[in-house]
Amino acid sequence: MKTNDRVMGKTAGFTIVELLTVMAVIAILIGLLVPALNQVHDKANDLQQRVQFHAIDVGLELYKSEYNEYPPSVDNLERADADGNKNNLTAYCGANKLAEALVGWDLLGFHPKSEFTAEGNDTNGTVTDRVLIYDAGNTNSVIANENIEERSDLFLELEKANAFRYEDLYDNATLSGPGLNPLNFVLCDSYTKRRAISGKKTGTPILYFRANTQQTLQRSVILNSSDVPTSEEFGDDVFNYWDNNSILRLGSVEDGTEHPLHDDTNDPRLEDFYEFDEILLNEQVSDIPVPFRAQSYVLMSAGKDGLFGNSDDIYNFEKEK
């Protein structure tokens, strides 16, 4: 009986080889499962981004129904006054103007007298005559109340806006380069990470380009010159690359890595402009350079990697990749 018990005891247990085999099978299954779960997670993030774009689309249509046009997107660094002078030297680009139009310069609603400036001023008259129209905290209660009463309702719920200030995303020393106001808001996409500079969980700013509906083509793809085109030379284009250049030149929110859509911090290369056009061109229409959404606007998310110009970017139009 004792001998049988020992034999039975040996057959009832697991050998080291058997345990290692089981562990190897489990490791293989995990190796197969993790990529699949990552793909599901990425697909969910992509879907969430498209849902956010849909909410922004609805907000922009509401804005247009009230003000008869979509918000502007030209960067104020590129905007000249009637005399040809560029008085506003603080960058305020398409991404900023999108945020202001939908939720307001201070997240309390859009002010109809706004001229879309980094300081929240109206720009009637000379530079010295500009007035802070978003001064909801004015010590004069009458002025403060009138300010709030004139605001539009939010065209986009703050929960869907993902609105953050530049100072929540980028190092302030970096901001001094393109002359950005650290207190200005941008709408961020759904690919969020914890930011070391602020401790806040944010995405990457969403780029906004309003179409020049007086044009029909994206002409810079057929430029013969090797020189980088100026903002004025983009007047014949439906969409202007320079509208969000102030953000592109900052690099990624993660670590400042240069965006493929902006390879040179000081002076974008001509290839960047070609790539911008290639993103926008609708090859399903014809062989001529006609962009998507030529009668409205384009939204761009940098996608999972946080870099504009890579294949994981998300747009408010469907483009084969």
Short description:
With 321 residues, this protein is mostly helical. It is 34% helix and 8% strand.
Explain what this protein looks like in three dimensions.
This protein has helices at residues 2-12, 16-67, 94-103, 141-150, 158-161, 166-169, 172-175, 245-248, 270-280, and strands spanning 121-122, 131-132, 163-165, 185-187, 193-194, 201-202, 207-210, 297-301, 314-315. It has one domain (40-315). The model has no long low-confidence stretch (mean pLDDT 83). By secondary structure, the chain is mainly alpha-helical.
List the helices and strands and how they pair.
Elements: H1 2-12, H2 16-67, H3 94-103, E1 121-122, E2 131-132, H4 141-150, H5 158-161, E3 163-165, H6 166-169, H7 172-175, E4 185-187, E5 193-194, E6 201-202, E7 207-210, H8 245-248, H9 270-280, E8 297-301, E9 314-315
Antiparallel strand pairs: 1-2, 3-4, 5-6, 7-8, 8-9
Mean pLDDT: 83
Beta-strand proportion: 5-15%
Helix tally equals 9
Elements, N to C (H/E): HHHEEHHEHHEEEEHHEE
Structural class: mainly alpha
Strand order of the largest sheet: 7-8-9
Shape, per Cα inertia axes: globular
Q: How large, in whole angstroms, is the Cα Rg?
A: 26 Å
Taken together, the total number of domains comes to 1
- Main sheet properties: 3 strands, antiparallel
Number of strands: 9
End-to-end CA span: 72 Å
Low-confidence stretches: none
Proportion in helices: 25-40%
- Subunit organisation of the chains: single chain
